[in-house]
Write a structure and sequence with these properties.
two-stranded parallel sheet; alpha/beta; SDR_fam; Short-chain dehydrogenase; NAD(P)-bd_dom_sf; 3-dehydrosphinganine reductase activity; Rossmann fold; Sc_DH/Rdtase_CS; globular
């Protein structure tokens, strides 16, 4: 997938590395000879064995079972990983959850959980990593297009991801003098189990609004993310349609909101017609 701007990382810390985007990035890092410490709520023995075979002779992989929302546990797990695998010269926080509902039906518990896992979890990951990361390192946080432009039923998710983007902006400014690069990954929808779960229980209006940015396969998304990471780009959004959405939301916000409002109105009318037909 190309060459890293400053050489292939020797050791990577990856949260959420047991599934979804995190797992795919773990596999790519191991293929390139990077040892990986996975931080996740669960990593099956069979998966760990598969990953160790993938890295055999080239790279080491270890798992650390931890809740990213618990700072003391994160710190302790990272202390252990640094002692076993070495200091991380690359780290990416992929742990996250998606809870959707229109705001008036969104419970406090759902909102708080999103903030704790997505935003406070990003804080905990960054804080834990930076206790060990040397000069020349690279820290990345997975956010979302929802961290740049809010979507229907994404009150909790967007609030948490806007926070992740803001945190990354500050970290970029503060860590540059220390020689540490920062990236924030803001993809659109990716075909993962998390998206499948949203499609089953989520709103058709949300799907209609988000179709503008398109849905990427995991392989295509990871390819685009890796290309951005290898260049040490700050904001990474894989896929042309998703990048166009990001540009419109940031540079032509009034036009973007007009487009979104039109899509929401059309989707709500379609729902009403379908309901009346039943």
């Amino acid at each position: 997938m190309g060459n890293w701007k400053d050489g292939t990382p020797k050791t990577a810390f990856i949260s959420g590395g047991g599934s979804g985007i995190g797992l795919h990035l773990t596999r790519e890092m191991l293929k390139q000879g990077t040892s990986v410490a996975i931080f996740d709520l669960n990593v099956e023995d069979s998966l760990l064995s598969e990953l160790r075979q993938l890295g055999a002779g080239k790279a080491q992989v270890e798992r650390y079972i931890v809740n990213i929302a618990e700072p003391e546990s994160v710190d302790a797990a990272m202390d252990e990983a640094a002692a076993e695998l070495g200091k991380p010269d690359f780290a990416i926080n992929c742990a996250g959850i998606l809870r959707t509902a229109v705001f008036t039906e969104l419970s406090y518990e759902m909102f708080e959980q999103s903030i704790r896992v997505n935003l406070i979890g990003s804080r905990n990951f960054a804080a834990g990593v930076l206790r060990h990361m040397p000069r020349g390192g690279h820290l990345a946080l997975i956010a979302s297009l929802a961290g740049i432009c809010g979507s229907y039923t994404h009150g909790a998710y967007a609030a948490s991801k806007f926070g992740v983007v803001g945190l990354a902006e500050v970290l970029r400014t503060e860590l540059k003098p220390r020689g540490i690069a920062v990236s924030v990954v803001c993809p659109g929808e990716i075909q993962t189990p998390m998206l499948d779960a949203e499609r089953e229980t989520g709103s058709a209006v949300t799907e209609a609004v988000n179709e503008f940015a398109g849905v990427m396969s995991v392989d295509d998304a990871v390819r685009g993310i890796m290309q951005g990471l290898q260049k040490r780009a700050f904001m990474i959004t894989p896929g042309f349609r998703a990048r166009l959405t990001r540009a419109m939301a940031r540079k032509t916000s009034a036009l973007f909101r007009w487009v979104v409002d039109g899509k929401v109105a059309a989707a709500l009318k379609a729902e009403q017609r379908a309901s009346a037909a039943r």
